[in-house]
Structures are given as C-alpha cells and as structure tokens.
Write a structure and sequence with these properties.
228 residues, alpha/beta, TIM Barrel, binds pyridoxal-5'-phosphate
C-alpha cells in the first residue's frame, strides 16, 4: 500500500533539495509540512517511518482523531485553513503551529486557551496578497496594525506570514504573489524580529515558492495523491 507514498515522498524531498541548491538556498532552512487532510493515519505513519515529522490538517475533529491514533509518534502538527473559533480549544493543545490566523477573535480565543495550558502558541498571519475576494487573510494594508496588536498577546508568538497563490497557470502571477509576501516580511522584520518565516507553496507552486524564499512548504497532493 505505502510504496507509492514513499516513492512520492522521497522524490519530492530530492526535488526540494535540487531546487534549493539551484537557487543558492540551504534545504535545511525549509520545513516540509505534509498536508494529510482527508487521508488516513496509515498514510501518515508510512512516511513518518521514512523521516517526515511535520503534518498539516485543516479540520479540528480530524486533527484530534489522528493525534489520538498516532499518539506514540513524535509528530509536529500544523493547523491550516479556515479556523472555527469554537474549535480553537481543541486545536491549541495539539498544533505546534497555526498557519492561518487573520481575525482578532481568533487571537483572543487562542490566548484564552493557551494561557490555561501554559503554552506559547506559534502562529502565522495569513495575508491575501492577490486581493481575490474569495480568499481569506489580511490585506497587505491591514497587516501592520494587525501584527502590532498580535504581538501584545502574552502567549502568542507570530513566527511569520502565510499566503496562498491564486489558482492560475500564469507563473508570473504566482511568483509575484510570493515575492510580494517576501518583501512585506523583509520590511516588517526590521521592527518585528520574530517574523522570520514564510509559509507558502503547495503542490502546484512549491518550486516557485522555494525560489522566492519559502521556509515552510504545505504540500498534500504531490505526496498523498488526489483528495476525494
Ligand atoms: C490543502 C491545503 C494545502 C495542500 O494543498 P495541495 O495542493 O494538495 O498540496 C496547503 N495549504 C492549505 C492551507 C491547504 O488547505
């Protein structure tokens, strides 16, 4: 069952290494988050056994279930995608990183829930670089004030910025989205030194994301196959 997964996974790792080298980056500064949503725990286990540690989920219940099923493994969990505020209490005890924060009520609820378990929650702020109406995230214009507010929460650490590129074959648009996020980050880091990371790049665009400075790739289909 898991042979194709291991093949996909190892060839992806090799590609990431090659692309990194080609553009003068060190592959070790790039964390691959294997996005396992919709796939069973056995899939996670099979590439965990090869060497994969970081896994991403986008539904609280699925995260809870898989965390329980895989409790003996030393997995670093990432939460991606839309956050239902009433599910944050389930997410924060499990997720090392939350990639998609963009509303004040999410910060309030995260703070409330992590405080009681004496944890500092690492988060990314999601930025809607392309300005598509269908996309969540802060506009680049809103970002600075939101970030300033986010840094006042005692148990929340903003580690970086996250974006999703538009769904298009036009690689110029994709590249422009990623390079814009990098420029925004490079500007903000002068005042907020903790904003080091760039979470960008999925199955269709991770090569461009690496070239444009991604430090966290979120990749599902390329490893696990098409989600049904
Ligand atoms: C599903 C998902 C991914 C992975 O997408 P693939 O195209 O399967 O690689 C990455 N990021 C987010 C936020 C997602 O929801």
């Amino acid at each position: 069952m898991s042979n194709f997964l291991i093949e996909n996974y190892l060839s992806l790792k090799k590609e990431i290494k090659e692309i990194s080298e080609k553009c003068g980056r060190n592959k070790d500064e790039i964390t691959l988050v294997a996005v396992s949503k919709n796939f069973p725990s056995e899939y996670i286990k099979s590439i965990y056994d090869v060497e994969q540690i970081d896994f991403g989920e986008n539904k609280a219940q699925e995260l809870i279930d898989k965390c329980k099923q895989l409790k003996d493994l030393n997995i670093t969990w990432h939460f991606l995608g839309r956050i239902q505020t009433n599910k944050i209490k389930y997410i924060v005890p499990i997720a090392e990183y939350i990639h998609s924060v963009c509303r004040k009520k999410e910060l309030d609820e995260i703070q409330k829930r992590v405080e009681s378990i004496k944890k500092t929650q690492k988060i990314f702020l999601e930025v809607n670089v392309s300005g598509e109406e269908s996309k969540a995230g802060l506009t680049p214009h809103q970002l600075k004030d939101f970030l300033e507010m986010a840094t006042t929460y005692k148990n929340i650490s903003v580690v970086g910025l996250m974006t999703m590129a538009p769904f298009t074959k036009d690689t110029n648009i994709i590249r422009n989205t990623f390079s814009t996020l990098r420029e925004i980050k490079n500007d903000l880091i002068k005042s907020y030194p903790s904003i080091k990371e760039l979470s960008m790049g999925m199955t269709n665009d991770y090569k461009i994301a690496i070239e444009e400075g991604a430090t966290f790739l979120r990749i599902g289909t390329r490893i696990f196959g098409k989600r049904v």
